[in-house]
Structure formats: C-alpha cells, structure tokens
Amino acid sequence: MSPPPPSQSATNPGSGGLPGVRIGHGWDRHRLATPDEGGRALVVGGVRLESPVGPIAHSDGDALYHAVTDALLGAIGADDIGVLFPNDDPRHDAEDSEVFLGEAVRRVREAGYGVVNLDATVRLERPRLSPAKGRIVENLRRVLGCEAVNVKGKTGEGVGPVGEGRAIEADAVVLVSRV
C-alpha cells in the first residue's frame, strides 16, 4: 500500500489527493433573543421570518446558510467559516450570510468541484419553517447552482434549547463531484 499523497493544506492534512466525489457536513446553532437582548431579525436560508426573537450573532446569524457553508468547505478540506470569516472582524458585522455561502461555492468550484446535492435540516420551535420552505429551497438552488436541494424543518418537541425557543440549529450534508 502506497502512502497518501502530500497534503494541500497545512491546517487540514486530509485535503490532499481529493477523490472524484466528496461529502461534507456542517452544523450551526445560534441562541435566540429579543431585539432588546441583542437578537437580530430571524433569517433562515436567506428568508426573513416573522418572529419576536432572532439570533444573537456577529453576521445576520442565518444558521442554515452557515451550516451549508461549512459543509461545502468541509467537502473540499478547506478551513471552516469561523476561520474564513472571523466573528471578531468588524467587516462581517451584520453581514448577509449569502456572502459566506457564495464564497464557499466559489472555493468549491475553484477546487474543480460542483455541488451534486444538499440535504439539510433546520431545528426551530417557532415560527414554523413550512410557509417559507419553497423560497428557502429556491435561494439555495440559486446560490449553489444545483437543483437537488432538500430542506426539512423540525421542532424540538418542547425539549432542550430548540424546544424551549431559545435556539435555532441547522445541519447540512452536501455531495460534491469533480467537474
């Protein structure tokens, strides 16, 4: 058995010798609060939802876009969203998270890959995601350049920080392949 090819990244040795198909996973959570407590408007998948609470975040706090961004970066063995867009950098204060997602897509393409599909889950007690789901999916299709996008909305069933309405969480899994 031959040794693995040399790494392309000193910070992530698993990125060397990328095969034709790669999977990436991303996860994000934001605490929810009222505007008086520092909460921003609630944005999920680029869609603003009516809610008395929103994420406490440096950017716009779009947990779904953040999870998808990390999934894409992970698929190509790149640094994560926090390294590329540090939350202590004033340039990203209230930044639209589509900027982060667009940069991740650009890096995926630059690495010679295209997005095959996305499967994501958003956990949010309220408001319900279903009325906005079509717009969220269309936003993701547009930014990713991929038709195979699935987004599911789940509640916390009244349990834990999501169920108690204190947090929003999102998971994303992407498949990318060589183009």
Task: Explain what you see.
With 179 residues, the chain is an alpha+beta fold. It has five helices and seven strands, in the order ββββαααβαβαβ. It has one domain (19-178): 2-C-methyl-D-erythritol 2,4-cyclodiphosphate synthase (60s Ribosomal Protein L30, Chain: A). 26% of the residues lie in helices and 28% in strands. The strands form two sheets. Strands 4-1-7-5-6 form a five-stranded mixed beta sheet. The protein has a two-stranded antiparallel sheet with strand order 2-3. Residues 2-13 have low confidence and may be disordered.
What's the CATH topology name? 60s Ribosomal Protein L30, Chain: A
Major sheet? 5 strands, mixed
Number of helices: 5
Distance between the termini: 28 Å
Q: Beta-strand percentage?
A: 25-35%
**Unreliable runs:** 2-13
The helicity comes to: 25-40%
Q: Write the element-wise H/E pattern from the N-terminal end onward.
A: EEEEHHHEHEHE
Radius of gyration, CA atoms, in whole angstroms: 17 Å
Principal-axis shape = globular
CATH-assigned homologous superfamily: 2-C-methyl-D-erythritol 2,4-cyclodiphosphate synthase
Number of domains: 1
Mean pLDDT equals: 92
CATH class: Alpha Beta
Using DSSP, what is the number of strands?
Answer: 7
CATH architecture: 2-Layer Sandwich
Q: Assign the structural class, choosing from mainly alpha, mainly beta, alpha/beta, alpha+beta, or little secondary structure.
A: alpha+beta
Strand order of the largest sheet: 4-1-7-5-6
Q: What labels would you give this structure?
A:
alpha+beta, 60s Ribosomal Protein L30, Chain: A, two-stranded antiparallel ribbon, disordered N terminus
